[in-house]
Amino acid sequence: MRDTVDIQELVERRESYRSLEAPFYNSPDIFALDIEAIFGRNWIFVAVEPELPEPGDCVTVEVGGASILLLRGDDEEIRGFHNVCRHRGAKLVDEKSTTIGNIVCRYHGWTYNEDGELILAEHMGKDFDKSCHGLRPVHVRSVAGLVFICLAKEAPGDIEDLAKTMEPYLLPHDIRNCKVAFQSDLIEEGNWKLTLENNRECYHCEGNHPQLTVPLSEFGFGFSPDEVDERRSADVAKYAEDVKANHARWESCGLPSAEEEHLSNVTGFRTMRLPLMWEGESHTLDTKVASKKLLGDFTDAKLGGLSFWTHPNSWHHFMSDHVVTFSVLPLSADRTLVRTTWLVHKDAIEGQDYNLDNLTQVWTYTNQQDADLVRLAQLGTRQPAYRPGPYSQFTEPHVEAFCAWYIARLGDHFAKPNAQMAAE
Ligand code: 3BY
Ligand code: FES
Ligand code: FE
Questions:
Q1: Which of 19, 140, 190, 238 has a CB 3.0–4.6 Å from the CB of 80, allowing a cystine?
Q2: Residue 138 falls inside a structural domain
């Protein structure tokens, strides 16, 4: 990709309801901009609380070249810091997850407490001011057990709107009393935006996801009005009735189910709960629960699937028996990490209450299929013949919402280039 592209011009001339121009998926300069203006400024979903259940538990995550350390303190709060020693910069915690007391740098022993304060630095002399050498903090906000971080100096305040809307949907699934049953890291050979665009539509589901389409209802995919006539309009109407009846039943048990869409917020998000296929219970190949131990206080296995999508990097599915979360972390212009985490009730016993293969297979297959589609999409955007193509207003409105959000954030960045970057 030539480096002569004028990024600002590309941003200004983006046509709505069309895929982005090729440099957005290929240019190293635009990738660097994405890391700064999108991943450096917005709330990024990186972990779930059950990854660090006890005080002293620590996990590290890599966000666009920045290693971040998350640590649960004695007060049960999760704090986040840049994983870089303030002496000569050594990486502090090298493991993906561990349990620690204080944060001790292996190199020369500088030691930080759980607030990131430097409490020990030998041989620095009596005039050395430890208080100026604390770890650089990052913002952390857990929404019902989903951990978001923000690397900017000032984090977008509308995460509180997201939390207020989403907590009634999420809290009944009681993530904080779940355990991680399995986590997978899959590297997709494509730009992170292709991963997100692919996730924001189910146009590709019928033709590519034979396992996912067992529990997911095809009627949720979005048909144009003429297709509704062709495709058994009676079935489509019955599905709409089914959604209505289930929503009423779930709402009466204290489970909000109606669609909430706030995709043009800076911290953009959307949620809805839909019935699963054939009176289905969960995202499994027989559509029955994968774990006998239901989440929270649930006694009913038929709670459908609550989906939750956030800009710029996550989606989640909540069922009566398990939760699946997805965190998208860009690695380079054409490589992206998709981290998938399966959660079950913390008292569920593997082999007795659930079987790991049964729990994970729908999304293991689906992720692999999506990775392959993203790879093909990336290969296409590198071709000289590639031109931005049209989105379907029926099946791809949320792909458009994602791209419009992305372009708006870059627009904000050009309007106020340094306004929110982390202080040096
Ligand atoms: O269900 C999801 O998470 C999305 C929507 C359709 C494709 N993708 C698997
Ligand atoms: Fe950490 Fe020296 S680099 S103590
Ligand atoms: Fe898919």
A1: 140
A2: no
Q: Say if 191 falls within a structural domain.
A: yes
Note down the domain range covering 295.
166-398
Predicted-complex ipTM score? 0.84
pTM above 0.80, yes or no: yes
User: Could you tell me which of 182, 179, 172, 187 has the C-alpha nearest to residue 358?
Assistant: 182
**Helices 356-381 and 192-199, axial angle in degrees (round to 10):** 120
C-alpha 424 to ligand 1 mean position (Å)? 39
Burial label for 112, CB within 10 Å (0-12, 13-18, 19+), is buried
Cα 357 to its chain centre, rounded Å, is 23
Terminus-to-terminus CA distance in the chain, angstroms? 32
Q: Does ligand 2 lie within 6 Å of residue 106's CB atom?
A: no
Residue 181 and residue 341 in contact, taking contact as beta carbons nearer than 8 Å: no
Mutate to test the pocket of ligand 2, among 110, 124, 133 (most ligand atoms within 8 A of CB): 110
Structural domain includes residue 105: no
Please say whether the beta carbons of 318 and 355 come within 8 A. no
Name the residue among 156, 182, 151 with its Cα closest to residue 70: 151
- 308 ligand 1 Cβ < 6 A: no
Question: What separation in Å is there between the alpha carbon of 138 and the centre of ligand 2?
Answer: 20
42 within domain boundaries: no
Helix axes 397-415 and 192-199, enclosed angle (nearest 10): 140
pLDDT band at 30 (very low <50, low <70, confident <90, very high): very high
Dihedral sign from CA coordinates of 256, 258, 263, 269 = positive
Contact (CB, 8 A) for 163 and 140: no
The enclosing domain of 318 has a CATH number of: 3.90.380.10
The residue whose CA has the least distance to atom 3 of ligand 2 is 88
Q: Which of 392, 419, 410, 358 is nearest to 32 (CA)?
A: 410
pLDDT tens string 79-115: 999 999 999 999 999 999 999 999 999 999 999 999 9
Residue ranges of alpha helices (H) inside 222-355 are 225-230, 233-252
Q: What does the alpha-carbon distance between residue 47 and residue 149 come to, in Å, rounded to a whole number?
A: 9
Q: Chain-centre distance of CA 86, in angstroms? A: 30
Q: How many domains, in total, are found in the chain? A: 1
Tokens 């300069």 belong to: 29
Phi/psi at 132 (5° precision): -90, 0
